[in-house]
Amino acid sequence: xxxxxxRKTFPYLDFVNGLxxxxxxxxxxxxxxNFKEARRPNCLSLNVEPFRVCTFLNxxxxxxxxxxxxxxxxxxxxxxxxxxxxxxxxxxxxxVKTPLISAVREFIYTKVKTAIEGITSAKFNNxxxxxxxxxxxxxxxxxxxxxxxxxxxAFILYLVPKxxxxxxxxxxxxxxxxxxxxxxxxxxxxxxxxxxxxWFEVSDRSWHQVSEVLEDDIRWSISGWFHAEDAPVxxxxxxxxxxxxxxxxxxxxxxxxxWISLRYLNVEISSEVQEKFQENSEVSLSEFLNxxxxxxxxxxxxxxxxxxxxPRNKKNYQVCxxxxxxxxxxxxxxxxxxxxxxxxxxxxxxxxxNYDDPDCNDFSNEPFGMMSSExxxxxxxxxxxxxxxEVMNLPDRLHIFYHSEVNEMxxxxxxxxxSFISHSDEEPLLVIPPQSNTLxxxxxxxxxxxxxxxxxxxxxxxxxxxxxxYVARTPNEEHIPSERSESSENE
Length: 491
Prior knowledge:
- By secondary structure, this protein is of the alpha+beta class.
- The chain is 20% helix and 29% strand.
- The chain is built from eight helices and 24 strands.
- It has helices spanning 22-33, 62-73, 99-120, 253-259, 267-280, 291-301, 325-333, 337-347; strands spanning 38-40, 44-47, 53-56, 78-81, 85-92, 128-135, 140-144, 151-158, 172-177, 183-190, 196-201, 208-210, 219-227, 282-285, 305-309, 315-322, 369-378, 383-384, 397-404, 418-422, 430-432, 438-444, 448-452, 463-471.
- Strands 1, 2, 3, 4, 5, 6, 7, 8, 9, 10, 11, 12 and 13 form a 13-stranded antiparallel beta sheet that branches. Strands 14, 15, 16, 17, 18, 19, 22 and 24 form an eight-stranded antiparallel beta sheet that branches.
- Helix 1 packs across helix 3 (99-120) and helix 6 (291-301) crosses helix 7.
- It is elongated, with a radius of gyration of 27 Å.
């Protein structure tokens, strides 16, 4: 009688680096509870500031780790990109049946899980997330805490090349928190090591990021979370916005004419711009300032004092605190009624009582004016995230963005572009690349928000942006800009 065909099995794995010894785990537990840093060569390390991160070194036999890497490399990865991240990810490894992925998954779900429960006194449930992750050159994951639903402990099994160093990028950066629990600055960066397993308990202060990969190599890893019913739940705060609108200031047309290119003060050209804006809900106007004012503005922006702005889970760029004379004059200009009238003619939105379009004669009594303005400096490492604008009652509004000093060889792959999305769409509604001496006008509805994409090391020099938001009086229905078309042209 023929023997039954044996089902293919995967190898049984156990700790091989000293963690199989009860005494080692007991000592680690004592250090962990007492927030005491620990080092055991070729076995483990424990960092306790700004929060506890433990790493099991050489967690697998080397031939197992190398074979696991080969199986991960053979998988299909999906590119994921949004305001927070750029990376490549596999399907959930719970659904993968290859021998070594199955063996390591079982090892993590049993031996590793039990060891971490013993160290932390946590009681994990049966839910474990696990994905293959690769960060290629310029990929990154910005500041976040990992607090979500029942996540309790995050983990990363590093499969990076053995030559990986801090100069390669891709470090696990840990942020210090202020009194409000918000991330302020990086105080420790942990460099990935091949065949090491790092983990930390998730909390409302476990702020961390994966820094940009700087070299032409791949940061391979397996990452995921252990879950528990008593995991910390951090509910995002919904910020109620109280609108403080600044009415336009008085001015004469001479000031406007001294700054703005005369072509945009031409009635025929402004009508053409308005038609495009009404069709696409956005338009970009090149050579917006006259050459003399543009040169003067650029010269003073380069010597202006700048201050970093955060917190890092929302934004990281610089703002002008003490504008110089020309910079202050430009800021004052965009607050004037003359400029509001110009914007009204360019968009069809009634931003001034002096906008004399005869078709716009039925308005509500809602307030109108400028919501906010800002002069900012953007360089490698700068970004803004959508969570900076999670407010419940933002009105429909007009955004303006004026960029200067952008490298002529600017590449959109360097980041720094402004992207608008809505809650109802996964894909961006609009992407605005920075262009020197160009004013971009964007009409955003109440559920549409913008962010500036992380600027990576491809960016060779900083650039500047003067931005503002305006709320118009509610016009007749026909003057509300239409849905955006697939593409729009730069004037």
